[in-house]
Amino acid sequence: MRAQFVLSEIGVGLRRNLTMTFAVIVSVALSLALFGGSLLMSDQVSTMKGYWYDKVNVSIFLCNKSDAESDPNCAKGAVTKEQKEEIEADLDKLSVVESVTREDQNEAYKHYKEQFGDSPLASSLTPDQMQESYRIKLTDPEKYQVIATAFDGRDGVQSVQDQKGILDNLFELLNGMNWAARAVMALMLVVALMLIVNTVRVSAFSRRRETGIMRLVGASGFYIQAPFIMEAAVAGLIGGAVACGFLVVARYFIIDHGLALSEKLNLINFIGWDAVLKYLPLILVTSFLMPALAAFFALRKYLKV
After folding, report:
1. 56-76 tens-digit pLDDT
2. Residue 271 lies in a domain
3. Does a structural domain hold residue 282?
4. Short-list 186, 261, 220, CA closest to 31
5. Which residues span the domain enclosing 121?
6. Which residues pair with 61 in a beta bridge?
7. pLDDT tens digit string along 146-203?
8. N or C: which end of the chain has fewer CB within 10 A?
9. Which residues is 103 bridged to in the sheet?
10. Where do transmembrane segments lie in this chain (predicted)?
């Protein structure tokens, strides 16, 4: 009987404050959708780091005749056969080197034409103007400095470049965007909590006569407060369900279909459905507990027994 009464009061309260209930649902949905989105973004960045850092190379670019005329690092002339043999021998001695791929001038010219064939500059280039290079895969991508120290500034070496540095800039940008999303999420959570507290206040005020009678007949404080707490919790839970729907729909249309980024951006290893599904229970639990606790603390002041 008591449970039936509490459930009936929840329905009455939600209908009585329909506009504010809708505002609570929307604000909770948006804030928790951003919360889930930020968690998924963190997983995506971690997945990309693991995927790309395993593939990054350190490149040693060698001096050619053109560099000898224009680059101070190649002031001693183009790389010689003896210098290349010395570089290869030293690379074989380094334990941090997993594999080495040599790209000669003809291969470099071919790859350049494949990637930038439409560029006006491509028609004026010749193979002898391209740089030979060594592409080095490290056992640990963090050990780039070992290669830089050993070969940067050496005769015949134009430069030593670490692809990880380029990726770090990309991941810093993605992390910055993720923190911006979290800041907006935190703001939305504050707005949601304020709406929940105000909704509870209005509901308690509109039913002050009923709660007064319940006090007089000896109803416990929890029994009086339960309908108000459950109203907030139910509204929050609806918002959490909507947030889960947002995340599922976004994953479906952005990555799998619609924009279909998984097909258009084959070089990116996108997170799977398991990453999305593992956060849905957390969002639902948060959407239920957060409004319930906010309502509980608000009612301690407005429904003292």
Report:
1. 778 888 888 887 777 888 888
2. yes
3. yes
4. 186
5. 57-140
6. 133, 159
7. 888 888 888 888 888 887 777 777 778 777 877 887 888 888 888 888 888 877 777 7
8. N
9. 133
10. 21-41, 179-200, 221-254, 279-299
